[in-house]
Write a structure and sequence with these properties.
- By secondary structure, the protein is α/β, with parallel strands linked by helices.
- It has two domains: about 1-115, Rossmann fold, CATH 3.40.50.1860; about 130-205, no CATH class.
- It has helices at about 10-15, 30-35, 40-50, 70-75, 80-85, 95-105, 145-150, 175-185, and strands spanning about 1-5, 20-25, 55-60, 85-90, 110, 110-120, 125-130.
- It has a four-stranded parallel β-sheet with strand order 3-2-4-5, sandwiched between helices. A three-stranded antiparallel β-sheet has the order 1-6-7, with no helix packed on it.
- Helix 6 (about 95-105) links the parallel strand 4 and strand 5.
- The two termini are about 20 Å apart.
- Bound molecules: iron/sulfur cluster (2 copies).
- The site of one iron/sulfur cluster has 14 residues, from helix 8.
Length: about 220
């Protein structure tokens, strides 16, 4: 899940300066679960903006907000309200905001900060689990990601700097990822996996902009 948090209201209002008529765009997926751009937050934002002198022309929840053709279709269905708006306020992640910007000619404004891909421990508590490296090595590390959960992203074992309490030398609030990996593999009786050399990641897998087209996937 893409984890986002709301931008401060002052920042949102600043970005909407001169935009008196606003159309709101949320998202049915991650932004709903993170409670930054679900139905309730869109309704609350509409009330807040009205209190600050804006006119909210309407709203829609992208289903999801990062589906370009779907969002274009939804925008067409709300053509009249969007046509009358000065701009759109996007309450999904940065991916959704860019998708919305490609789906309309109107100015879009971003209401959230997108943080990372993570899991929801419970509402309001998220943990980054994967850095999207493109070459997953979880199989060798007891299903604990060394790229994300070791501060140095080490692939072949610990740096040796962990504290006696098992905390990371870079971030004493954080458990040493490699100690977690070691303990997990020990518990599973799979410590032999640590003897295998893991090659450096192929940086060519990380161009600035990544795309993927699966055979038979059709148009998104
Ligand atoms: S190794 Fe870590 S960062 Fe790379 S894909 Fe697997 S979980 Fe994600
Ligand atoms: S102490 Fe552990 S988590 Fe921190 S950088 Fe070293 S190996 Fe990685």
């Amino acid at each position: 899940m893409v984890i986002s948090e709301p931008k401060p209201l002052e920042e949102i209002l600043e970005s909407l300066e001169g935009q008196d008529k606003v159309f709101l765009v949320g998202c049915t997926e991650c932004a709903t679960v993170c409670q930054v751009g679900g139905e309730e937050q869109v309704k609350e934002m509409a009330e807040t903006l009205e209190r600050h002198g804006k006119t909210v022309m309407g709203s829609v929840l992208g289903d999801p907000g990062c589906h370009l053709l779907g969002l274009k279709r939804q925008f067409r269905e709300h053509g009249e309200e969007i046509g009358a708006a000065d701009g759109l306020l996007i309450m999904s992640c940065g991916n959704g905001a860019q998708t919305a910007a490609d789906a309309t000619d109107k100015p879009v404004h971003v209401a959230t900060n997108t943080l990372f891909v993570g899991r929801v421990a419970r509402f309001g508590h998220y943990r980054e689990m994967c850095s999207l490296c493109g070459e997953c090595t979880l199989e060798q590390t007891g299903y604990i990601c060394p790229v994300t959960r070791c501060s140095k992203g080490l692939l072949n074992g610990p740096c040796g700097g962990a504290t006696a309490e098992g905390k990371c030398e870079v971030d004493p609030e954080m458990d040493c990822g490699w100690l977690l990996i070691y303990n997990k593999l020990k518990e599973q009786n799979r410590l032999d996996l640590l003897k295998a050399y893991v090659a450096p990641k192929d940086v060519r897998m990380h161009p600035a902009e990544r795309t993927l087209s699966r055979e038979g996937g059709g148009e998104a």
